[in-house]
Amino acid sequence: MRPQAFLPLMIGSALWAQAPSPDPGPSFIAAPIRINLDPIFKSVEELAPKVPPGIETWTPLPSPPGAVYRFNLYREPFNFRVSGSHIFLHTIAHYWLEVGLKAGSFVKGVGSCGLGKEGYRRVLLGTRADLSLTPTWGLDLKVQLDDPAALSPCAITFLNYDISDRVTVGMKENLLKATVAMEQQVRDSAMLRQKAEAMWTQAQQPLALTEGVWLSLNPERIRITPWTVEGRVLILTPELQVRPVITLGDQPLNQTRPLPPLESSLLPIPPGFRVRVQADLPFEHATAQLRRQIQGKRFDTDKGSFEVLDASVRGQHGKAILDLQLKGKITGRLTLQGHPTFDPSTGTLQILDLDYTLESRSWITQFGEWLYRTTLKKTLQEKANWFMDQSLKDVKTLAQQGLNRTLAPGLSISGTLGDMTLGQPTVLTDRFRVEASISGLVEVNVDAAGVLGTAGSSLQPMDSGSAPRAAPLNFSQAPGRRFRFKCSAHRWMRNSRGSATCTGCRGKPRS
After folding, report:
1. Which of 278, 328, 351, 449 can bridge 306 by disulfide, Cβ–Cβ 3.0-4.6 Å?
2. Is residue 345 part of a domain?
3. What are the strands, taking DSSP E only, across 283-343?
4. Into how many domains does the chain fold?
5. Does the residue 465 lie in any domain?
6. What is the mean pLDDT of each run of 10 residues along the chain (511 residues)?
7. For residue 74, is it within any domain?
8. Secondary structure of 413-426 in the HEC alphabet?
9. Is 163 helix (H, G, I), strand (E, B) or coil?
């Protein structure tokens, strides 16, 4: 008759996992946090006026005496580029400039740039910013403005110097204010730390794989690897260092620890997830099963019969020891020994090379070697197969199922487990232990929506000044056409781009 699985749970579990000896090292779980940078880009776009203050207003120049200038300017939408943790933004500003000599309230124009057939002059405005993480899981942004670069300088001959910077100074100041506000928006965001705390807290909670089977990750530390970029999405990848174990029975106790300070890793941390599983079979449980299989069994020989009164299992010097108490033709204690091994196809712990100990051999020789010819040893070899309540293969299946789930709102775990590697059973002081290792890749997915807030949600557009703002003129309905405007400056302005600005425009655009 096939022996029945009998192994009761030892303290609630017959199969339980803990870090093996020697220590195989930690496992690592990637937890990418994808931060969409669009909110801060939109804030800059909204906060930096497209037209600076003071346009078309005669303003004194330092020399020569009576020299004044006025201009009109508009900027294109900002262009943003992300490289690693560096953010670059630039725009091209289009402008015209006129210089005059003022006498009383009368101004006589003496030179201009960007008017008439020349077309608007252009200047490149830009800034760069470095995004970083603080040890307390805060975001930090440091911005540095670039000097304006004239793509088509404006040099008035009689002045003998370039006055392009006079035109761009207002736009540069507004750009600086917008980027400073962007810095504050990033620093005020506490969402990233909240996401990290939620991830760390959940990693400390045992995961129920099925009823009575638990996976504990046991996080130890957390490090950040080099950042990567996908378009306008910045990807931060904290790596959790864990020592995962599987337990059976009641839910394991966990000690909640606060989120540790952030550590940085200069190189990517090699991914790898290893779950160590140890199947423990106490000697008392193995003894109970062996007794069910052989206790009271009668053996008939040509020399007479004997019966097995009792049987027990123990371990010594790395071997399994079977003690038998016999009664009948032979009465006394007989001991056999062998090496334990685990058969993954049947999920049983078996005894190889089962044979009599030297002490028993001496006793058999004195009593009669006919005992060697009995089926006792063969019967014991067949019956000394101990079944686990739950096979290691079942544990792997449960672990795979449990690794793909939602942990909390905005937080999920996913992974794939590979092959299971079995070790040889070991003999401890009170039990046999079968050790296995399941390897794979595991990732914690963090929804970072709202880390940087909503563009413009906490910031107000800046006032460009008391001077009249230029009214945007949109030519999107006729792309590529050239238009001319009659403006309050009584100057014709031409623009072949999709939009332009002027103040006090009268009449309609005409081609």
Report:
1. 328
2. yes
3. 298-301, 304-316, 319-328, 332-343
4. 1
5. no
6. 30 31 69 82 84 85 86 90 85 89 88 84 88 82 85 70 73 81 76 82 86 83 82 82 79 84 74 75 88 88 85 92 88 88 83 85 75 79 72 75 79 82 86 82 75 46 37 31 33 35 36 32
7. no
8. EEEEEEEEEECCCE
9. coil
